[in-house]
Amino acid sequence: MGTSNPSGGAAPKEEEDEEMEGADEAEEEKSQSDGSDSAKASDPAPFSEGEKVLAFHGPRIYEAKIQKAEVLAGRWKFFVHYLGWNKNWDEWVVASRLLKFTEENVRKQKDLTKDSQAQERSARSRLSQKPSKTDVKPEKEDAKNQGSKGKKRKSAPPNEVILKKPQESPLMLQFPLTLKKQLVDDAEFVTQLGKLVKLPRSPNVDDILKKYLEYRTKKDGTINESVSEILKGLRCYFDKALPVLLLYSKEKSQYNEIVEEGVSPSTIYGAEHLLRLFVKLPELLTHVNMEEEALTKLQQKLLDLLKFLQKNQSLFFLSSYDASKAAVKAE
């Protein structure tokens, strides 16, 4: 989730700054609304510069080091570097996302990691069957030109739910910063605040994929069959992965209540859960028998869809979730 563009070049500094400012503003508005992390410049900082801490990032906790500490907009904020991760992950966070580096909190970190890994193993075992050839297809000319001498893609280590080493996946390396912030807020709403997405969503995943196909058709001047096939495969992946890989534990009873047998999750869920799928795709694609070059081109097309989501972020994503834990169908 760095700042590179699809062609591999670095994003303009101005664009990066604008994205970071937008993320900071959203976080400030959220903190102001619930009155948390309030502070005065005269108040002592709960954490100090150079201090090693534990930081929430999505549903997991990571070791981090505080590089800066400032009172911004009436609250303490800390610029942290996640130890062992690329500096592209450095970010400003509020105090409620940090824990002191103590034995008790380290145990809490390990417990969360074990729970997450157990869910990952269970999900992978249920998704171990390789997708059919129609699930995801590269461009026809790509398939013809690959031949049998190319190197097969090796299996990658399991994904983190939110954090992913950028060098392991071009898709994650170029993940838009504002969508990364969306993922973090999504996890906080569900896992820490107990709020859920109210279902069914409009637009749903089917609607979003149709809108993207219309966008590409208008832009290209013709219907691109390879894009259409990729979207069909993406929908198939979403429907299969959602109940076993994309739901937090607090969302599972909601799923059981609202998704009836024979109903596709892509007609019920929206952009919030579709975005989670993109975090899992690098791992899921290791099960596809595809040449490295074709896989890279496929990821570039998926990146274009991510940018489409980013451009329409205010239309596709909710700004807040339902306070009711039931959060099911509206009357």
Description:
With 331 residues, this protein is of the alpha+beta class. The chain is 47% helix and 10% strand. It has eleven helices and five strands, in the order αβββββαααααααααα. The protein has helices at residues 13-34, 103-126, 140-146, 170-173, 177-192, 205-220, 225-246, 252-258, 271-284, 292-311, 313-316; strands at residues 52-57, 60-72, 75-82, 91-94, 98-100. A five-stranded antiparallel beta sheet has the order 4-3-2-1-5. β3 and β4 (91-94) form a beta hairpin. α7 (225-246) packs across α9. The relative contact order is 0.14.
Please report which band the strand proportion falls in: under 5%, 5-15%, 15-25%, 25-35%, 35-45% or over 45%: 5-15%
Give Rg in angstroms: 20 Å
Low-confidence stretches: 1-36, 130-168, 326-331
Widest β-sheet, arrangement of strands: 4-3-2-1-5
Overall spatial form: globular
- The tally of helices reads 11
Helix content: 40-55%
Mean pLDDT: 74
Q: Give the beta-strand count.
A: 5
Structural category: alpha+beta
**Distance between the first and last residues' Cα:** 39 Å
Summarize the helix and strand pattern as letters: HEEEEEHHHHHHHHHH
Quick one: biggest sheet?
5 strands, antiparallel
